[in-house]
Design a protein that fits this description.
Layout lengths: L1 H9 L4 H26 L8 E2 L2 E2 L3 H18 L5 H17 L2 H6 L10 H19 L11 H5 L1 H20 L3 H9 L1 H9 L7 H6 L4 H30 L7 H4 L1
Antiparallel strand pairs: 1-2
C-alpha cells in the first residue's frame, strides 16, 4: 500500500488534488445533511441572515475558493502550503457548486426541480477530478507515445481531432458525453457517431430534410430517457434531497 501511495500519489504530485477532491466531496455531503436538517426543522442549525438578507453558503464558498486558489499560486510546490490551499479550495468549491443552480438561475431554486442542476454539477465535477487523479489527461494526451509527444505536429493533430469529436458530441445535445470525452476521447468518439438528440443544433441542421433520421432520433431519445430518468431521479433524491412540488401557478 505504501509503495502504491508513493508511486501514484506522492511522486506525481497528486496529493493536493486528492485533498481538494476529498474536501470537495465531504463539504458537499455535510452541506446537504445540514440543509436537509434545516428544511426538516431539526437540529441546532438555521439559515444565516444579515438583517433581512439570507446569506447563502455560496458567499463564503466564493471567499474560500479565492483564498485557496491564490494560496496555491503563492505557496509553490513544496511544504505544507499546497496541501492547505488545496483543502481550502476544495471546501470553497463544494460550497459554490452546491448552489450552482442559484448562480445559473439567479434565483433561490435550491429545493426546486431546477435545483437538481447543482447535484448534477457536483457529481460531474467529482467524476472528472477523479479521472484526472487516476491519470487521465484532457484530449487523450496520456495515450500518446513518447515519440508522438516529441512530435509537436502529431500531438497537436491528436488533440485537435479529440477536441473536434467532443464538439460534435456537444452539438448533438450530448453535453455530459462531450465533457467526459475531453478526458476520455473514445467517449467523445462514440457520442459523435451516435444519433443526435431532438432539438439539438446538429438535429436542426442535418435532420431537417431527413424524416427517417429525425424519427429515429426521437425514438432513441424517448427510450433512453424512459430507461434512465427514473434511476437518475432516485439517485438525485437520495443524494441531494427530494425537490419541493411545483407551485400550482408554476404548472400553468
Amino acid at each position: 500500500m505504501g509503495h502504491w501511495w508513493d508511486r501514484n500519489i506522492i511522486e506525481p504530485g497528486k496529493l493536493p488534488l486528492l485533498l481538494a477532491l476529498a474536501a470537495f466531496v465531504l463539504t458537499f455531503l455535510i452541506t446537504r445533511v445540514v440543509t436537509r436538517l434545516i428544511r426538516a426543522g431539526k437540529g441546532p442549525f438555521g439559515n444565516v441572515t444579515a438583517g433581512s438578507v439570507h446569506i447563502h453558503h455560496v458567499v463564503p464558498g466564493v471567499v474560500l475558493t479565492v483564498i485557496g486558489g491564490f494560496g496555491a499560486v503563492a505557496s509553490g510546490r513544496h511544504g505544507f502550503g499546497p496541501a492547505l490551499s488545496a483543502v481550502i479550495f476544495g471546501i470553497g468549491t463544494g460550497l459554490v457548486l452546491d448552489e450552482f443552480a442559484l448562480i445559473l438561475h439567479l434565483d433561490d431554486v435550491y429545493w426546486s426541480e431546477a435545483g437538481r442542476k447543482s447535484v448534477e454539477m457536483v457529481v460531474l465535477t467529482a467524476a472528472l477530478v477523479g479521472l484526472l487523479l487516476a491519470g487521465f489527461v484532457p484530449f487523450g494526451v496520456n495515450d500518446l507515445s513518447e515519440d508522438e509527444l516529441q512530435n509537436r505536429a502529431g500531438a497537436v493533430v491528436s488533440i485537435g481531432v479529440n477536441f473536434l469529436f467532443a464538439l460534435i458530441a456537444l452539438s448533438k445535445g450530448k453535453a455530459r458525453t462531450a465533457v467526459f470525452g475531453v478526458i476520455i476521447p473514445v467517449v467523445a468518439l462514440i457520442g459523435s457517431l451516435r444519433l443526435a438528440r431532438p432539438g439539438s443544433l446538429w438535429a436542426r441542421r442535418f435532420y431537417r430534410r431527413r424524416p427517417r433520421a429525425r424519427a429515429r432520433a426521437v425514438l432513441r431519445a424517448y427510450h433512453h430517457d424512459r430507461r434512465w430518468a427514473g434511476p437518475r431521479r432516485a439517485f438525485g433524491d437520495w443524494l441531494g434531497g427530494k425537490p419541493d412540488p411545483p407551485h400550482p401557478l408554476e404548472r400553468d
